[in-house]
Structure formats: C-alpha cells, structure tokens
Write a structure and sequence with these properties.
Largest sheet of chain A: 2 strands, antiparallel
Strand content of chain A: under 5%
Distance between the termini of chain A: 50 Å
Strand content of chain B: under 5%
Helix content of chain B: over 70%
Radius of gyration of chain B: 20 Å
Number of domains of chain A: 1
Number of helices of chain A: 11
Strand order of the largest sheet of chain A: 1-2
Oligomer: heterodimer
Shape of chain A: globular
Largest sheet of chain B: 2 strands, antiparallel
Helix content of chain A: over 70%
Structural class of chain B: mainly alpha
Shape of chain B: globular
Structural class of chain A: mainly alpha
Number of strands of chain A: 2
Number of strands of chain B: 2
Distance between the termini of chain B: 25 Å
Radius of gyration of chain A: 19 Å
CATH topology of chain A: ABC transporter involved in vitamin B12 uptake, BtuC
CATH class of chain A: Mainly Alpha
Number of domains of chain B: 2
Strand order of the largest sheet of chain B: 1-2
Order of helices and strands of chain B: HHHHHHEHHHHEHHHH
C-alpha cells in the first residue's frame, strides 16, 4: 500500500516532466512540421545551466531557472532562424539539421562539464512533506510539480485566450490559409519554437536537482517525448498532456513493481500499437486532406 | 552497366585488392569496417528508394549479427552457414515488422521504425539469457577455410570485399530492374502507381525485407571480425551516422552513399591524424558538416561532382 501511494505521487511528478518535454515537441512539429531531434538536448542544456550556475557558482536556484529557460530559448530561436526556416519546404532537412545540433550541444556540454562522473546538484529545498503516516514527499519534487503545472496552465491560457495563441493554432492547422489571412508565418514559428524550447529548458532546470546530469541525458527525454506525442496524438497539446500523465503512471508502476527497461519496452510497444490502431492518437482528430 | 563504368569498377576493385598491403595494421582494420559500412549504406538506399526513411536499419544489422553470433557460438555453426542465415533472420524479422510499420507513412513511419528498433535493442539488453545483456556475446569464432588465418586483417578484408562486391552487384541489378523502377514510382507517384495496379504496400515491404537481408549479412561480417556483439553497436547514434553518410554523399544515386561513407571516413581519419581537433570534439565537427551539407549542398557530394562534370562537358560542346 505504501509503495502504491508513493508510486501515485511519483507518477504525478514524472507526468509533469513528461508533459513539459512533450508540449514543446508538439508545438514545434505542429507549427513548423519539423521533428526536433535535439529537443532532449535542450532539456540537457537547462540542466547543465543550473548545475553550472547554482551548484558551481552559488547563484540562487530561483535565478538559475530563468537563465536556463532563456539559454534554451535562444538556442531554439537560432535553430529556427538559421536551420529550419531555409528548409521550410523539406521537413526531412529540418530533422537532419536538428540531429547536427544534437551532436554539437552534446559536445559543448561535455566541454563545459568536463569528463568524470555524472554531475549532481544538491536540492535547494530540503524539507520533506509528510502526508498521513507513510507518505513522504520531498519538497523539491513538490516544487517541480507545482511549477510544471503552473507553466502548462500559462501555456493553455496563451493558446486559447490570446490573439497570438489563436494565430499559432491557426498556423498549426493550415499554414497556407493562415498566411492568406495575414498571419506572419515566420514570426509565429519563432514564437512556437521559443515557447517549446523554453518549456524544455524549464524542464531541464527543474530536473537538475533530482537526477544525474550527463551530456547524454537527452536520449531518454526524446524517446519518452516521442511516445507521449504519438500516444497523445501528434497535433494535439491536450492529448500530449493527458498521455504524459497516463504514460508516467504506467512507467512508474511498471518500474516500481518490475524493472525500468521492461517499462520502456512496453511503452515503445504501446506506441507502435497506437500507431497501428489509431494513428491520430487518443485525442487526435482525423484531418481530411 | 556501360563498358566505361565496368572498366571504372574493375580499376577500383584492383586498387582495393592492392590497397591493404600499403597500409598500417590499424588502417587495415578500418578498411574492413569501411567495406561493411558501404554495404550498410547501399542497402539502406534500397529502403529509402520508396521514400520512407526508416530508423530501424542499423538494428536490423544487429539482428543479423546476433543471429550469426548465437548460431556460431551456441550451436557451433560455421560462419559460412551462419552468415546467410543472419541475412535471412533479419529479412524474416523485417517481414514481420512490415505489417505494423507500413500502416504508417512519412513522420509516423520514421517514429514507428525508431520505436520498434529501440524495443528490439532493449530486448537484447534486458534478456541476459540468451543475448548476454549489455556486454553482449564475446569470443565469436572467425570464419574457417583451409589454411587461411581469418584473424589477420588482410584475408578477412578480401573475404569482406568479395561478399560486399557481390551484394552491391545484386543491389545494383535490383535498382535498375523493373522492381527498382517500380520502387521509384511508389516514392514519387504513389497514387498513380496504385491506380495502374501496383501494390505499394507490397513494394515498400519488399524494399525493407531485401535491404534488411543485406544489412544482416553486413552485421555478421562486422561482429565476426570484432569477435564480440553488443547492443551498443546498433544504437540510434550509429543509425545517425548512416544517415549522415547517405545524406552528405547524396541519396539520389547509387554511388552517392558510397562516396559519402568513403569521404567522411577518410575525413574522420585525417582529422584524427592531424591532431587539430580533440577526439571528444569530433561529433560536433560531424554535426557541423551535416548541417552545412543540408544548407549548402542539398544533393550531397555526388551532386557537386555531377554539377562540376556537366559544366565542363558543357564547355566542350
């Protein structure tokens, strides 16, 4: 019972991270049609920034987080302006370029952090919240979950209540028709990748105190983000968020009761099954051509 | 194949037969892996002919490698039998995967093939019996034939060269045959091809199965020289290198990917030998080359060569 309750809490926290990873990928794919393979590396950049500023140079954690977001966002903007925009007509070219960026970011992280064991950041919030008799949640994880949910809420507000958010969704729906309505596609693309990369940077910053930081931590991120994106429906943000929490629950429970590798294998198989049975995902809608 | 091309092929082959005798020991090793990689990229091109970019190709190489390794290590099969079975095993797994994978196209296929490949790779890592887990299977026996010592790189290179040359010839014939032309039609005009009665699903599957057969053989060739097979030899990172070779070389023609893998391997070694670039930084150089080739030479190295030649012939006319 104890393990069960603890697993539920853990899956919520994991779900928050998974959702942050996936919404960026969905935004970028939806608006620009590019699969950003370097998305996991943007998360890694966020984590490294926090390690460098907070753990190495004693910058307060709450200042390191916005810096991490800004750095990830800048990288995203550069990618859009110089790599994705010239290749707008060829989605494969954009994907290949993002693989190039992936290599470069990993090497930069390797150069900045040096070799040796994985980097760790001591959690800035040490308190432990106790609920009932058996449930103990570290404050750090609770903080991460709160920030993740708050930023997803802000994103939801932006996309559904502001004019810019409507424009962004319109471009994702039909790029040419939106251009004809006077929407500046390039500007919207910059906003989409800016927001997506910022979410990735935020996720990395929040994860930094909770796990080992290595140049290759993006690999796990991108696999999970793919699974979540596909299961949720490629164009659907709400689907991705729902799928993130469902998959996090699944992954946490299988890991707790069996093994982490088995959990990932099952996740990948679920994704293949979803692709076969309902390629539009659990929340996707069929788009007529 | 025209007479001119045939002569070029014979000259290149003669050069390759002589080449290892002029190279240091570690470069002889490299030549074997280069020959294997040529087979990997050319078989990959057959899969991409239908317009679908699969990310499972290197995992299929691993399926062949594991099949051959397990047969020779656990059942005592000689290499000459386990190698063709490696190809057949990869082809069989590919045939099974066609049912789920080719219900998707484009982006979905890319991600689906990636997922299926990762799942296979994680199975190797997770099931220590019989796959050996992360450390894989080691002490694989080399091929045996008369008195030839296949622990030595030169004999192994000659064997690899013969097998790769035969495979390339078959792959070339397939591409130029009616089947190859149909694959092209499936890529560029799928609805039209369907309307005249071409079963596009069948042809996409055929390309994946045949490509997997040859890459399975490439896998067997690689691991029996190394003597060890591990899941990490077939990760997404390796797949990315295959993509780089094919794209930098130019995937529009048969020779493009071969040019890509040869030029980048030589470039890589030159970089290493020059000592200008720290080995840890090399992936970044690769990344930069990849981005530059997408931005500045969308047809790859092969496209640049073609443009150069057509310009000079234009001046002659």
């Amino acid at each position: 019972m104890e393990l069960f309750l603890q697993s539920i809490v853990n899956s919520l926290i994991q779900g928050g991270f998974f959702a942050l990873w996936a919404v960026g990928l969905v935004l970028i794919f939806g608006v620009m049609g590019v699969v950003n393979f370097a998305h996991g590396e943007l998360v890694m950049v966020g984590a490294y920034t926090v390690w460098l500023l907070h753990a190495q140079n004693d910058v307060p954690f709450l200042i390191a987080i916005p810096v991490a977001i800004i750095i990830a966002m800048m990288i995203g903007l550069v990618m859009e302006r110089f790599l994705f925009r010239p290749n707008r007509t060829d989605p494969l070219a954009g994907l290949i370029c993002s693989i190039g960026v992936l290599f470069i970011l990993q090497v930069i992280a390797h150069e900045v952090g040096g070799t040796g064991p994985a980097k760790q950041v001591a959690p800035p919030f040490n308190q432990i919240v106790e609920i009932g008799e058996s449930l103990r949640i570290p404050m750090q994880r609770l903080f991460s979950l709160g920030v993740a949910i708050a930023s997803l809420g802000v994103l939801w507000f932006f996309l559904t209540k502001t004019k810019l958010g409507w424009a962004l969704r319109a471009v994702a729906l039909d790029r040419e028709a939106s251009a004809l309505q006077g929407i500046n596609i390039n500007r919207i693309s910059m906003i989409a990748i800016g927001v997506g990369a910022a979410m990735a940077g935020l996720a990395g910053a929040l994860m930094a105190p909770l796990q080992n930081i290595t140049p290759h931590m993006g690999h796990n991120v991108i696999i999970t983000a793919f699974i979540v994106t596909i299961v949720g429906g490629v164009g659907s943000l709400s689907g991705a968020v729902a799928a993130a929490f469902i998959y996090a629950a699944f992954h946490t429970f299988v890991t707790a009761y069996f093994n982490g590798t088995v959990a990932t294998i099952c996740g990948l198989l679920i994704m293949v099954v979803v692709l076969i049975i309902k390629p539009t995902g659990i929340m996707g809608v069929k788009v007529s051509e | 194949m025209s007479i001119k091309n045939l002569i070029i092929c014979i000259v290149i082959l003669a050069g390759l037969v002589a080449l290892p005798h002029f190279l240091a020991y570690n470069f002889q090793d490299l030549l074997i892996f280069l020959a294997v990689n040529v087979l990997v990229v050319v078989s990959y091109r057959l899969v991409t002919l239908t317009g679908e970019w699969s990310l499972i190709h290197v995992v299929m190489m691993g399926v062949g490698a594991y099949a051959s390794a397990m047969l020779s290590k656990m059942a005592g099969f000689p290499f000459w039998i386990s190698m063709p079975i490696a190809g057949l095993t990869a082809a069989t797994i590919a045939a099974l995967l066609c049912f789920p994978l080719f219900r998707m196209t484009q982006f979905y296929f890319l991600i689906g093939s990636f997922a299926a490949g990762e799942a296979i790779r994680l199975v190797w890592i997770y099931f220590i019996d019989p796959f050996g887990g992360s450390s894989g299977i080691n002490n694989l026996p080399p091929p045996e034939l008369g008195d030839i010592d296949f622990y030595e790189p030169i004999p192994y290179f000659y064997m690899t060269l013969i097998i790769v040359t035969i495979s390339l010839f078959i792959l070339y014939r397939i591409e130029k045959s009616r089947v190859g032309l149909t694959l092209n039609a499936v890529h560029w005009k799928a609805p039209l091809a369907e309307s005249v009665g071409v079963d596009t699903w069948k042809y996409r599957s055929l390309a994946l199965i045949v490509g997997s057969f040859f890459v399975g053989i490439a896998g067997a060739l690689k691991v029996h020289y190394l003597g060890v097979v591990t899941p990490h030899q077939f990760g997404i990172g390796v797949m990315v290198f295959v993509l780089i070779w094919v794209i930098v070389g130019g995937y529009a023609s048969f020779v493009g990917p071969i040019i890509g893998v040869v030029v980048l391997t030589v470039f890589d070694q030159g970089l290493r030998a020059s000592g200008i670039v720290d080995p840890a930084v090399q992936p970044a150089v690769y990344g930069a080359v990849l981005i530059a080739s997408i931005l500045f030479m969308p047809e790859g190295l092969e496209g640049i060569g073609k443009r150069f030649f057509s310009k000079s012939s234009g001046e002659n006319a």
